[in-house]
Amino acid sequence: MITARWSRWAVVAVVAFAIASAIAPLRGAPRAAASEHLASQACAPSALTVLTWSDYASYAASTPVRLTAIVRNSGPSACRVTLGGSSPLVTVRGADGSVAWASCGQTTPCPLYLMVATLAPGASRVQTWSWNQRTRGALAARGTYSVTTTASGTHSRLATSFQLGTRTAQPTVVASLASSSRVTIARGATLVVRLGAQGLYVFSAPTSSPPLTARLSLGGATALALFVARGVGSAVVRATGTPACYPQCLMPSRLYQLRVTVTR
Predict the structure, then answer these.
(1) Out of 152, 174, 200, 260, which could bridge 81 as a Cys pair, Cβ 3.0 to 4.6 Å?
(2) Do residues 260 and 183 touch, judged by C-beta distance below 8 A?
(3) pTM strictly above 0.85
(4) Model pLDDT, residue 189
(5) Which domains does the chain have, with CATH numbers?
(6) Nearest CA-CA partner of 89 in 75, 73, 106
(7) Which long-range contacts (CB under 8 A, 24 or more apart) does 167-176 make?
(8) Are 205 and 218 in contact (CB under 8 A)?
(9) Is 46 left (phi over 0), alpha (psi -120 to 50) or beta?
């Protein structure tokens, strides 16, 4: 009798354990599904930062113009962005507004493919193009040219321009606050500052004193800033990394500095 009773209890315990094991994953399923759904949302235009710069502020005739575009998720959560083919689409226009060159669709057809990429908060994609200054088979005229960029339905945050037909001068400098300690740039040139994701820190927006003027400065899981040298002198670009686990953890904050010398 006792043996039979214990056998019945053992069967009941095994069945209960099996039911609990089956229910446990189901309890977590809605949360996991919700997280996956949130991560699969397309990036809102307000969450995307599209930024473009040329490698020089002015170019001599026939000198290739190198254009770089960065697409950054500036939102608080992961999202999807459409890239490839015609995204990003970079367009160069003359002073009269006519299109002188485009990354595709003008002299070359746009590749018929697009891919969907997921960008974590602060993550970015970078792409570079080269223009030989020729438009409609002839060398582009002297003058000021503007650049616009569109990626995943979002337009570039800042207007970018350069001069053609003068001399190649005022190179754009791209520096990392994590690895660079000092750079030298020319007056009128652009300084692009980046601070890569390290996982443990949240970064403040980079700041600087004159003669550098910030045109764009973003913090978060990564930092990105674009400065223009308006005068001659010295400046220090600063950003602070605060532990992402603060205040639960006691890791120290980190100060990043980049010393900049602006020459004539």
Answers:
(1) 152
(2) yes
(3) no
(4) 95
(5) 41-170 (2.60.40.2360), 172-264 (2.60.40.2020)
(6) 106
(7) 167/58, 167/59, 167/60, 168/56, 168/58, 168/59, 168/60, 168/63, 169/56, 169/57, 169/58, 170/56, 170/57, 170/58, 171/55, 171/56, 171/57, 172/53, 172/54, 172/55, 172/56, 172/57, 175/258
(8) yes
(9) alpha
